[in-house]
Amino acid sequence: MKLLQKFSLMAVLMALLVVPAFAQDPITFTFGEFGNPVQLDPAVVTDGISFRVTRQGCESLLEFEGGTTVPGPGLATSWEQSEDGLTWTFQLVEGATFHDGTPFNAEAVVFNFNRWRDTSNPYHFAEQTFEYYEAQFNGYDDDSIITNVEATGDFEVTFTLAQPMGAFLNNLAMPMFAISSPAAIEANGANYGTPEVGYVCTGPFRFVSWESDVQVVLERFAEYWGEFSGNVDRVVLRVIPDNAARFAALQNGEIDGFEQPNVEDIATIEASEDLYIQLRPSFNTFYLAFNYRIREFRDPLVREAFTLSIDRQAIVDAFYVEGAVPASTMNPPTIGIGFNPDIQQTFDPVRARELLAQAGFPDGLSEVNVLAVDENGMVTDEVAETIPVRLYYMPVVRPYNPDGEGIAEAMASMMAEAGINVELASAGDWATYLGERANGNLLGLYQLGWTGDNGDPDNFIGYFFSGVGNPLPREGFYQNTALADLLLTARTGTDRDTRNTQYQEAEGLLAADFARIFVAHGPVPLAFRSRVTNYITSPLGTELFKNITITE
Fold this sequence. Notes:
By secondary structure, the chain is an alpha+beta fold. It has two domains: about 5-235 and about 525-550, 3-Layer(aba) Sandwich (D-Maltodextrin-Binding Protein, domain 2), CATH 3.40.190; about 285-520, Dipeptide-binding Protein, Domain 3 (Dipeptide-binding Protein, domain 3, Roll). About 25% of the residues lie in helices and about 20% in strands. The protein has a seven-stranded mixed sheet with strand order 8-9-10-1-11-20-12, covered by helices on one side. Strands 13, 14, 15, 16, 17, 18 and 19 form a seven-stranded mixed sheet that branches. The protein is globular, with a radius of gyration of 24 Å. The model is unreliable at about 1-20 (pLDDT under 50).
């Protein structure tokens, strides 16, 4: 199918240049952002900064109902499944158009899913990674749980699955599976999603511009097919990396809101007549990951010692808002199924020293050995270099991590009490940090975290560990075949009680291996000017700006 035979490139470009004519100055909502987006093709990004942008203009077949993790109609109005759970048929909205003026229909849905699923598809670009598709649908090509996507009518699409999938509807509502314009992807190739192009979807705000380190600008799409309950004409996401600077910008009226103010600033905001705090429900996990290219980290005694060296409660008390709790598992307590309350990671620096001595480090640990990687990307037994024990901290504030460097400093002090001497390390900006993590190049411990995308444990513990039957660079080369097998079984189940038990067992396997150091779960504060109303928070962090009303 060559869509550009139907829609000329000239028509696409002319549509992109259309700017809404506002009768008066546009009503603008300005949000202070931690940093730059990584990319604006929703299918290839994994970070919340990028998704906050794409979520305003890109829509999926299903949408989570306001403030919940319940999937409801989106670009699909209704759906049916076969008795065996292998065939799903969706009826689509009629009359929706992409921001480039081309029509939304079943063929557009097929184009997008085939692009993500099929590595031989000409638009499955080698320089891009559809990490979410691989993680949520079990891989590409013949490994994919989705085996076929077919337009069975102009506005009807049918999915065929290899196995039933308990979280299938939840997955389809996730923002990375938003439907982009096939014509825009064909016209721009791998440049789709870059600052020069942005996104081209069906949602309420179209992309206007992206100036790196400055701002992203979106404007209301005049031809939007759906409901638009707010009054915002223009959205500006302004890059202000420093927390104090974001707070000052809010006080001065330069921005209308931002996420994760410093804990010490919250009382000032709450006392102000012009500002207020709104909490996003807790649905996240902050943790430290081990890179298993470090030979010493392959010893479970060493990993347990590191785990025992962290006082989670002290970190929660110092850096998080009221309602945050220490974490012992990947799945948060607020998840519907799969949380295991019997698992507890404790703080015991004396026991940590004893474990290090048992592992062969009676004088503590200051240096570690990095194992080499062969031409196939597999970790060998050969030592490539000896380096200090490194703790990489995140370069931006995230919903689950209010102060990456500050928390890292606190952790380093705690570890020192247990005989572990770490060197704090950075890895560049946010995009670089994520890239180094994905390639397995953060050689030490590194901060990471997660806000759930769909409310199901397959998107928490399953996202990260269902593929660790093989050592994945993005998971620090961690390998646990029993854990991966159990998670893949849970993924294809449909009975809620059975899946709950399976995910709790998976958490037990992860805890017994001391594979990660889980730190905190907590609600996320957002600060706003009083002129902002009807900001509907979501536990998934995917708030829609089309609901906002600005009053003067």
